[in-house]
Write a structure and sequence with these properties.
alpha/beta, 2 domains, 10 helices, 11 strands, 33% helix
Length: 263
């Protein structure tokens, strides 16, 4: 697991609420994410996890409440603006350019991070100036051997690793990962867990995750949502022993378990 670098809160919310035509999807959520930790956001199907995630990353505007990142109010900002501040998200569905090589995908992300646009017609020499850093990122995520492969030909788990590499290209201080192991084989899950642990060094990670084995193995702190509200927060051991959490996960077995859906 990541270790806390200091006691600072890097991301926090107060009264975070989102209503859709009278339906309250997220209600009065107070979230505190400590710098240098891996923080999990979990909950049963329909708990409001995805809505909360989209609020934090500015893909949805809140009905009310505030979001602060590094002490700065980002409630009214747009996704690109918060990304420039170092708060960068990945997506639940792999988002790569399938007809570009793995190396070219990372190169495009690096080009974008340095203020350029996606202009593939720039000179080869200029584009290749990004190659060294792109190869470093591919090594970080275990994709060096796939650098010249078309991204669309990669197995699903490797595509997710590529997506993390392109996220890392933006040099985030905080990464938000939306179900990074969704739909993966057991082998791929283990690989992505190791990858998240590796890339978490020196930064903060907030992840929404349905696989509770992943959550227990990665997260320093876990926030449990149900019906749009915070039900519990603490270490995995603490929340797994909470009777209300057990009840929320379809049954009262000694450990919370099961594949929650998207919420």
């Amino acid at each position: 697991m990541a270790t806390t670098q200091d006691g600072d809160t890097i991301l926090e919310t107060e009264g975070l609420t989102k209503e859709f035509r009278g339906f309250v999807a997220v209600s009065d959520v107070a979230l505190r994410v400590k710098r240098g930790t891996i923080h999990g956001l979990i909950g049963p199907n329909g708990a409001g996890k995805t809505t909360c995630f989209n609020l934090l990353t500015k893909f949805l505007p809140p009905t009310r409440g505030t979001i602060r990142y590094e002490g700065r109010d980002i409630t009214g900002m747009k996704p690109a603006e918060v990304a420039r501040l170092g708060l960068v998200r990945s997506f639940q569905i792999s988002a790569v350019f399938p007809h570009l090589t793995v190396l070219e995908n990372v190169r495009v992300a690096l080009q974008r991070a340095r203020g350029g646009s996606f202009d593939f017609w720039r000179s080869d020499s200029l584009l290749k100036s990004f190659d060294a850093r792109a190869m470093e990122l591919l090594e970080d995520v275990g994709l060096t051997a796939y650098a010249r492969h078309n991204a669309g030909e990669l197995p699903y788990g490797r595509k997710r690793a590529l997506e993390i590499a392109t996220t890392l290209a933006l040099d985030p201080r905080m990464m938000l990962l939306d179900e990074p192991t969704a739909g993966m084989t057991h082998e791929d899950v283990g690989r992505i867990m190791a990858l998240v642990q590796r890339v978490a060094k020196g930064r903060t990670v907030l992840l929404v995750e349905h696989n509770l084995t992943v959550v227990s193995g990665l997260c320093d702190t876990i926030t449990v949502l149900t019906r749009g509200r915070v039900l519990a927060e603490g270490t995995y051991m603490e929340v797994s022993r909470n009777p209300e959490v057990k009840a929320a996960y379809l049954g009262t077995d000694p450990g919370i378990s099961g594949g929650e859906g998207h919420g």
